[in-house]
Specification:
Length: about 150
């Protein structure tokens, strides 16, 4: 019984040592961070006028969708699969948050410009989502009329 418990104890110690040695390698092998595509020249030129005074910043996201409807980002094929184009306007100063409320007609003009000039009327494009200080606007690519959905924060 003494030899049997020694073998079991030695086996447990070996398993723990192997687990201890391999565990850091498992945790250090992280997947690469998924980054959004770089801004195109058209996007940079168009949105530069909004950010000139330094009070407003713009973040742009592409969101792809799997066949099941789950959102993800296909890094190399983001514009060759169904996608939403999302813009978020936010203030860089505490007081600037309220000053970034955009007019509905300027939002609609912006969405049309994005659709036709930046996205080049891409057949995989689904929606343009624009958020300002208070509202969320959704412009659908499937209809000739853009629908605006306002929600308060």
């Amino acid at each position: 019984m003494n030899k049997k418990s020694l073998k079991i104890g030695l086996g447990i110690v070996v398993v723990l040592i192997i687990g201890f040695l391999l565990n850091p390698f498992w945790w250090l092998m992280q997947s690469p961070i998924v980054q959004q595509p770089k801004w195109s020249e058209e996007e940079t030129e168009y949105f530069e006028r909004f950010t000139k005074n330094g009070e407003i910043d713009i973040i742009r996201y592409y969101k792809n969708f799997t066949k099941a409807g789950k959102d993800t980002l296909f890094v190399n094929d983001y514009d060759k699969r169904n996608f939403d184009y999302k813009l978020v306007f936010y203030g860089t100063q505490k007081n600037a948050y309220q000053s970034i409320i955009l007019e509905k007609d300027s939002i609609e003009k912006m969405a049309k410009y994005i659709k036709y000039n930046i996205l080049k009327n891409n057949k995989y494009f689904r929606n343009i989502i624009i958020r300002d200080g208070r509202n969320k606007y959704i412009f659908s690519a499937n209809d000739s009329v853009f629908f605006i959905n306002e929600t308060s924060y």
